[in-house]
Design goal:
The protein is built from seven helices and eight strands. By secondary structure, it is α+β, with helices and mostly antiparallel strands. It has two domains: about 10-80, no CATH class; about 90-185, Mannose-Binding Protein A, Chain A. The strands form two sheets. It has a four-stranded antiparallel beta sheet with strand order 1-2-8-3. It has a four-stranded mixed beta sheet with strand order 6-5-4-7. A hairpin with a 4-residue loop joins strand 1 and strand 2. The chain is globular.
C-alpha cells in the first residue's frame, strides 16, 4: 500500500478525487444498484469518513469498488470489488497468516486474510461471490480467494472461485498455495 495511505485518512483533495471516481463508476453501472441514488450514497460516505481510506485502498490495489446493495436494517451501503479480474495489487497471496508461516520456501509477499484486515475489508463469502457473478462477468481469467468455512480451514484447505464456461465454480486448494492469477475481492459496509 502506498505510503500516503498509512495514516488511514484522506486529504480533502484525495476525498474529492475518490468521490468523483466512485460517482462515475456508480452512474456507469446502474444495473449493480437499481433504484439507488448517488447523493444518498455520498451522504452516507460523508458521515462515515473512516471508511473512505479502505475504499481508496480497494481502488489503489485495482479492485474498482462499487455499490452492490443496501442493508435496510442498518442503512449500510455494501461495496464489492467489481474489477473484471481479481485485483492486480492483491494477487500471488496464500490464504492466511498461518498458511504463510507454514511455507518453508518461496513464500508469497502476504496473505489474503492479513492484507484484507490491513485494508479494513473482508473477503467475499461464497454467497457474496455468487451474487457478484449475477452482476456481470468476473474472474474469467483469474480466480479469487473466498472467506473459507472454519471446518475446511481446520483441515488445511481454503476455497476460491472463478467463472469459466459460463458457470461459476468454487474450488478448494491448500491454504498455503498461491498463484499469479489468484487474488481476493473485498467487501466493505459503509
Amino acid at each position: 500500500m502506498a505510503k500516503s495511505k498509512t495514516s488511514k485518512t484522506l486529504s480533502a483533495q484525495e476525498q474529492t478525487k475518490l468521490f468523483e471516481l466512485l460517482k462515475t463508476r456508480f452512474e456507469k453501472n446502474m444495473k449493480r444498484h437499481p433504484k439507488m441514488d448517488w447523493s444518498a450514497v455520498q451522504k452516507r460516505l460523508d458521515s462515515k469518513s473512516n471508511k473512505l481510506w479502505s475504499l481508496s485502498v480497494m481502488e489503489e490495489t485495482g479492485g474498482e469498488p462499487d455499490v452492490v446493495g443496501l442493508d435496510k436494517k442498518t442503512g449500510e451501503y455494501i461495496f464489492f470489488d467489481c474489477a473484471a479480474d481479481s485485483p492486480k495489487g492483491r494477487r500471488s497471496l496464500c490464504y492466511d497468516g498461518a498458511a504463510l508461516r507454514s511455507r518453508k520456501e518461496h513464500k508469497p509477499k502476504d496473505s489474503a486474510m492479513e492484507m484484507a484486515e490491513a485494508m479494513g475489508v473482508q473477503l467475499l463469502t461464497e454467497e457474496q461471490y455468487q451474487e457478484l457473478q449475477k452482476l456481470g462477468e468476473f474472474d474469467l481469467k483469474t480466480s479469487s480467494w473466498l472467506e473459507t468455512p472454519a471446518a475446511v480451514r481446520k483441515l488445511g484447505g481454503a476455497i476460491f472461485g472463478d467463472c469459466r464456461f459460463g458457470r461459476v465454480f468454487v474450488y478448494h486448494n491448500g491454504a498455503e498455495s498461491y498463484y499469479a492469477a489468484r487474488g481476493f475481492r473485498g467487501v466493505l459496509r459503509v
